[in-house]
Amino acid sequence: METLDFEERDKFIAFFKNEAIDIPDYEIVDVKEPKLYKNIFPFNEAPKAVFDGVVVNTNIPDKLLISDTTFRDGQQSREPYSVEQIANLFKMLHDLGGNNGKVNYTEFFPYTKKDREAIEKCKNFGYEFPRITGWIRASKADLQHIKDLKLEETGILASVSDYHIFYKFKGKTRSQVIQNYLDVTEEALKSGITVRLHLEDITRADIFGTVVPFVKKAMKLAEKYDLPVKFRCPDTLGVGLPWPEAALPRGIPKLFWLLNKALGVPSEWLEFHGQNDFHLGVSNATSAWLYGASLNNCTLLGIGERAGNIPMEAMIFVHSMIKGSFDGMNTKVLRYVTEYYEKKLNYKLPYYYPIIGKNFNVTRAGIHADGLLKNLEMYLPFNTEELLDIPPKVMVSEHSGIAGIAFWVNSFFRLKDGEKITKDEPTLEFIQNEVIKQYQEGRVTTMLDEEVITLVKKYLPDICEKYKNRVVDS
């Protein structure tokens, strides 16, 4: 197939020139056959990347925020959390987001007794952030749950691709399906409830035939009731592309540029919800921020359906990269989030997991350890002890060398400048000899901390006794 789609390019350019496109203003374009983009999604092959020859400029909002779906999408991929576990994680989200409310809101199902108990328990903390919001299907019966819980905002599932409209709502036209979304939205607004329309599967939707007129109609309702109607854009199957040259519907930059610049949706009403099916989740979420969306919807540790959601810890660091600061977010809380999942929820994070995996700031190579002894910045992208409360470490093995053992001692006991030992410490050679002997006798695994501390107690007893109170389980 050709990678340059001239038809999509012409539509995009014509739209911005206010030239006639074959879509009536504010009206959904009904079609007899679903528009499935089979040239892009052939199903028996990998999805195709299509470019339209148009490049949009970056459009970074003044304020970048994170929203949370740990208790909704994140809970759909694992055994359900108890009410107590939800409350504990909610407190961590509050601490992580800081006083500026950078973790702006979280969302809950309102359907079961446990759902409602969790909502009330989290309400009772009295936190301003994260705000407690709902998630419902587009039905007035579901909306009644939100009214009963006295929630000020709810998400409403509003699938917009023809894959969903034609096969989930058989026998209904695009217009009929969209009108139902609008009816439920208006009912919520009448009750003073802010609506967040979740434009499900938008990266496979007819943008100009369905999404644009839908958004225009919803914006009219926002104006009528003087309440926000926000738009979440879920990349439901993770097929979005982060490049500004990528054509709609897959191009995340063009999607948010269009919604913000052409349709006038305020950035703070725009949100991205990504999936990681093709390892592009964080890249797509970053693009959403760069091209007009204020919010990125995440889960703790990226736990979510199929290949997972956008990891909150990743976007916290991306925020700092883009804006130059964490803006009050407490990154040290990430360590305690990880410990809670592993010790209380029996969730094992892969050792190689970025930022907060056990191996993120660990080296096994002796030459790297020697470099770290001389300057931490040689093999670390940031000060992990300062930002995560996790000092850099080495794994002791036959390849660690004396420098590696010295670094292990300094790290394990959190020795400060003036207290640290160097590789010139003579007793380190005795420790190294005992380590090498084990490998000569057939050992193949790296040594556990408990094994190394036994040797350190034997040859450096003064350090063990003097600094034992600084040892923290990491």
What distinguishing features does this structure have?
single chain; 474 residues; alpha/beta; TIM Barrel; 2 domains; 8-stranded parallel β-barrel; two-stranded parallel sheet; 17 helices; elongated
Topology (SSEs and partners):
Layout: H1 6-16, E1 65-68, H2 83-97, E2 103-108, H3 113-123, E3 131-136, H4 140-149, E4 153-157, H5 162-168, H6 174-190, E5 194-198, H7 207-225, E6 229-234, H8 252-262, E7 270-273, H9 281-290, E8 295-298, H10 312-323, H11 333-343, E9 362-363, H12 366-374, H13 384-388, E10 393-394, H14 401-412, H15 428-440, H16 449-459, H17 461-467
Parallel strand pairs: 1-2, 1-8, 2-3, 3-4, 4-5, 5-6, 6-7, 7-8, 9-10
CATH topology of the largest domain: TIM Barrel
**Cα distance, first to last residue?**
51 Å
How big is the Rg? Answer: 26 Å
CATH architecture group name of the largest domain: Alpha-Beta Barrel
What is the chain-wise order of helices and strands? Answer: HEHEHEHEHHEHEHEHEHHEHHEHHHH
Number of strands: 10
Q: Number of folding domains?
A: 2
Helix content: 40-55%
Broad shape = elongated
Task: Give a short account of the largest sheet.
Answer: 8 strands, parallel, barrel
Q: Give the CATH superfamily of the largest domain.
A: Aldolase class I
Q: List the uncertain runs.
A: none
Number of separate helices:
17
Query: Residue-averaged pLDDT, rounded?
Result: 92
Structure class? alpha/beta
By CATH reckoning, the class of the largest domain would read Alpha Beta
Strand content: 5-15%
* Physical arrangement of strands within the biggest beta sheet: 1-2-3-4-5-6-7-8
